Amino acid sequence: MTSTSPLLETRSLTLRYGTREVLEDFSCTVERGELLGISGPNGAGKSTLLKAILGIHRQSCGTIHRHPLAKRPGYVPQHAPIDKNFPLTASEFLAINAHTRIPWIGGIPRKLRHGICGKLDCLEIAHLAHRPLGALSGGELQRVRIAAALLNDPALLLLDEPSSHLDPTAAASLKKLLLHLHSEHSLTLIVVSHAESFLDGLATRRISLEAVAGTCSPSPSWGHPVPTHSLTSSAG
Amino acid sequence: MDLTDLLRYDFMRYALISGLLLGPTCAILGVFVNLRGMAFFSDALAHSALTGVALGFMIDSATGWKLDPTIYVLIFSCLLALGMGWLSQRTPLARDTITAFTFTGSVALGVILISMLGKHRMLEGLLFGSIYSNGPADITRQAILAVIVLIFFLTQLRPLTLATLDPELARARGIRPALLHYAFSLLVAAAVAVGLKMLGALLLSALIVIPAAAARIATTSFRSLIALALLLGILIPPIGITASATLNLPTGPAIVLVHIAVLAICQVLHLLFPKKSSS
Known about the structure:
The structure holds two protein chains of two kinds. By secondary structure, chain A is an alpha/beta fold. Chain A folds into two domains: about 1-75 and about 155-235, P-loop containing nucleotide triphosphate hydrolases (Rossmann fold, 3-Layer(aba) Sandwich), CATH 3.40.50.300; about 85-155, no CATH class. Chain A has helices at about 45-55, 90-95, 110-120, 140-150, 170-185, 195-200, and strands spanning about 10-15, 20-30, 35-40, 60-65, 75, 155-160, 190, 205-210, 215. Chain A has a six-stranded mixed sheet with strand order 5-6-7-3-8-9, with helices on both faces. Chain A has a three-stranded antiparallel sheet with strand order 2-1-4, covered by helices on one side. In chain A, helix 3 (about 110-120) packs across helix 4 (about 140-150). In chain B, about 80% of the residues lie in helices and about 0% in strands. Chain B has helices at about 5, 10-35, 40-65, 70-90, 95-115, 125-130, 135-165, 165-170, 175-220, 220-245, 250-270. The radius of gyration of chain B is 19 Å and the shape is globular. Chain B has one domain (about 5-270): ABC transporter involved in vitamin B12 uptake, BtuC, CATH 1.10.3470.10. The chains are: A alpha/beta, B mainly alpha. Chains A and B meet through helix 2 of A and helix 7, helix 8 and helix 10 of B.
């Protein structure tokens, strides 16, 4: 792979749950520095696509090529309710997300302190470091999850429905943060959202998936036809 | 009779060492038993140990072997833990439903087998424990278990915590939550088998569940949870054993009541001084 190779390339990707196909013959290329928005209704296979890229959805055929820089993408999964009484602080949450063999017995290991504090600073949430996860607002928790995903300095960040469960103010603040990470930190992002409005003014390119199994169609915002079952497109 | 007098007796020294080994071992396991909602699971494993002992007697009488009952309980508890984990992934039934019928079914089978073998008299020891019958072999087993649990937590605490909080995120980090669940379940089963002699089938889960539950009430960070659970695990069994010896009370129930008292104190303190949400 050369330094100019795409960060990610899928070819004829078909994803299934059991016998049910959720995505068929999907091809797509993600270049470095892109902020790709993927939208579509529930059941269109958006989240499953992210899981396939991560290698945790194995019921698939086709190929996914990841550039060595994207071997370990950062990932912020769809909002899952967190046990409000889970006794873990924001900085401890980052510590358990670190790719390291440094033993951990709670708190922040000395060798990880710099990295964790740096990421919390970068996302302007240093003041939340010692706050329990259960005491965070939706927007604060989402920033902590993004900080955890960025802890290992990935070249590619995948976000699954990052604005769900956020009020409009928190969603706008999150959008601003993602734009900042994209422009100032040269991060490549793939953002999945069923809310088209969240991707407006955020994504540099958009793909819209349809709920009907076996078909993928381009976003209406492209304004030109693309052959069904093959999406290797670019749009500004 | 004070503690110095008590320590002159071998049985008392073994009991205290037993408490000092099993207390923190069970307490650290209890942290994740609590966080993963497995309190009923550990209770069920403890009760089903009856069946393990009874099956051991049957195998011994059929084969002429004379193996330590703990070995049979260990094998039976581990098989039961794996079986419950396997079944929970292949049935629409909820985990606690599987635990409930495994629990009642194995206790029923155990009591019938013990009745058929005419070993009714051993039921009391199995149900309530007999910590003063601990010997060097028991202490060795408890020490081995403590070391295994220590190594497991030193190497797996980070992935186990992430898998407990968010299994999907854990999978994305290359962790295998199902494998960790099986490994953790086996450790709980081993703790039940090794600890049966101390508190018995009816009371043993107190040793696993309560120190971590009390610590969870009183703490907001993971580090303080682990530290307090371990501290309570180290302190409570010797206090219970000493109280039972000096006040002439049954030892197992005395240990459990000290656990309950500590839990009640933590809850009262929590009500009087609610935890701060930030520092």
